[in-house]
Amino acid sequence: MSVPELAGQVGLCSIVTMWFALVVRARPALRQPRQRGLWLAVLAAAVAITLFQPRIVGRLTDGFVDLHTVALTRNLIGVLSAGLVLLFMVDPTRARRLCVTVTAGLLAVMGTLVVLDLLQTQHPGESVTSVQGPADPAFAYWLLLIAAHLVGDAVALVVCWGYSLRTEDRDLVWSLRLFAVGSVLALVFWCGYLWHLYGGTSAMLPYLSLVIGVHGCIRAASLLVPTVTALGRSWTALRVTWRLWPLWRDLVLAVPQVALASPQRTRLREVLRPRSPLALQAHRQTIETYDAFLDLQQYVRPGAYEEAHRHARRAGVPDRRLAAAALAGTLGQARRAKLVGAPPSVPHPLPGVVHGSSATLLGIARMWPSMTDALPCDDRPVDAAAPAHRE
User: Fold this and answer.
1) What is the rounded distance in angstroms from the CA atom of residue 249 to the CA atom of residue 263?
2) CB burial of residue 200 (10 Å; 0-12, 13-18, 19+)
3) Contact at 8 Å (CB) between 45 and 23?
4) Most exposed among 247, 255, 260, 324, judged by the fewest C-beta atoms under 10 Å?
5) Phi, psi at 371, each rounded to 5°
6) pLDDT tens readout for residues 259-310
């Protein structure tokens, strides 16, 4: 694949990714003032990058828009994006005077660009040589435009990286660092574009298109960090709920007092139609399983854990899973003892079960189907009339 083709594919991917991120994050971002500035900055960048793609420009010029208007609009929206980035950077400082200064400077730069464009004596249609070329080759126009971008991206790089080193919020760290990396690519793009305008050749444009396309993807990624984190947490909760369900169901049926709600008929129904958010469901199942462990310790026979351990070893269970298999076998015997009505005894603590660790519980759940009936259970139900008979 040639560089122009690769640049085109990356550019298309960046556009789709940025607009997808904007749609996904629109509602939560617009509700929170701290995220609103970032969302608006990415929106302006998405429009500017969209208007930089040759396919998009070609479709616009095939209609009713001339090439000069597209290029000028792209330049103005790009400056607006740089200004919004600056406002997003200075907003956390709550410096009202600084925000007003940045806003006034942004409006002045955009107004000056329009005036410089209108003052050119050359016909607008003759000043553009390519769909990615400048709206006007005047030195003052492009010096002001590129300076605005360089200032905005340089400030974003310094501020984002500095804040990422001071915060402990993992989502914020990744968002800031991705935004900083995007700013580095933007600096590379504008320095290369300046070289293209005043000394380079058009052969640089595909490489610059590739850089700005990657920049767009990274900008979108910085916006999607909270969504990706939420999806990761949901996937972890779903995995815990799915894998823990057989063990949890069997234990809470034996110890129903530990469960806030009885298990549903199938594991699939528990996952597809949860009665609470997945994260809460997984947390609840973990706590209830551990509480059932504590109750069943009264029905654990002396030496049951060692017997289950030997049984698992003879069955060929790998060494790394022997402890979980032994716990599963011990709990299986204790559960059946309680179900048949065996009297409780002095609790025998289960080794290795510390504070309901989800990793430990998942290990036991993995071995549960094969070890639940591994140990014999000879306990008989206690006859209710027996005490009276003995008297």
Assistant:
1) 6
2) middle
3) no
4) 260
5) -115, -5
6) 888 888 888 888 888 888 888 999 999 999 999 998 999 999 888 999 999 9
